[in-house]
Design goal:
37% helix; seven-stranded mixed β-sheet; 21% strand; 238 residues
């Protein structure tokens, strides 16, 4: 996994910047009830999306939480007094503290997402919603020539898989309540970048150096392929 303390300095520039943040925030808010008063953004990163959530709906009190010191520090600059350093699996909030909890690009990083779902359910009030990205890695498979070469090594199991998330949510009294999409910006994969990820073991480790070489020799090694579209799912607490 990435060192997110170090990654904080370049995170926004490599994850679509403000255009992606605007799109992600709009998609999250489309799934949050209009009468919601308090929203918690877990694994908020640099706060780039979190701050957009706050400004897009002025009547909504937004809090950001991230486990990485570097990320939480950047978030605090965007959200003075409303950002904390906290692990999404052990949130420092009382039960029933929020009308909404969101997690954008977190669950796909975990070996076990159930503790995060459990905590989200715990801090939600009855009728509150948990909004999270699902199938994040699958979103990058857009039918490109890169995908054609790597499909053999693509692992179908994903901890943030939509069906898996529905099961985890049901265990804590959360039922599906909506879906939204948002487009990535500057996140279309290039052969050279994918080859780097393969060599580092972050993608398709079973393919090894030979797969990295094949991907890197594709035409237009630095030309981004089609942008991914990311999926958000909402789950309402009984």
């Amino acid at each position: 996994m990435l060192d997110y303390d170090k990654e904080a300095e370049r995170y926004d520039a490599t994850r679509g910047g403000e255009p992606r943040a605007v799109a992600a925030a709009a998609a999250v808010l489309a799934l949050v009830p209009d009468d919601a008063r308090d929203l918690l953004d877990v694994a908020c990163g640099t706060g780039i999306v979190t701050s957009r959530l706050a400004t897009a709906r002025p009547g909504l009190r937004v809090t950001g939480a991230d486990a990485a010191h570097g990320m939480a520090r950047r978030a605090a600059e965007r959200l003075p007094g409303a950002a904390v350093r906290a692990d999404a699996r052990r949130l420092p909030f009382s039960a029933g503290s929020f009308d909404a909890v969101c997690a954008v690009w977190l669950l796909h990083l975990l070996d076990d997402a159930r503790p995060v779902v459990a905590e989200a359910a715990r801090v939600l009030r009855p009728g509150g919603v948990f909004v999270t990205t699902v199938d994040k890695d699958a979103a990058h498979h857009v039918g490109s020539d890169i995908d054609a070469l790597t499909v053999r090594w693509y692992a179908g199991h994903a901890e943030d898989g939509s069906e898996r998330m529905t099961e985890y949510a049901a265990e804590h009294g959360l039922v599906p309540s909506g879906t939204a999409l948002f487009r990535g910006h500057g996140q279309g994969r290039t052969p050279r970048r994918v080859a780097e990820y393969i060599r580092s073991g972050r993608l398709y480790p079973a393919g090894g150096p030979r797969l990295a070489e094949r991907v890197e020799t594709l035409p237009g090694p630095d030309v981004p392929r089609r942008e991914p579209a990311f999926t958000l799912r909402a789950f309402r607490k009984h």
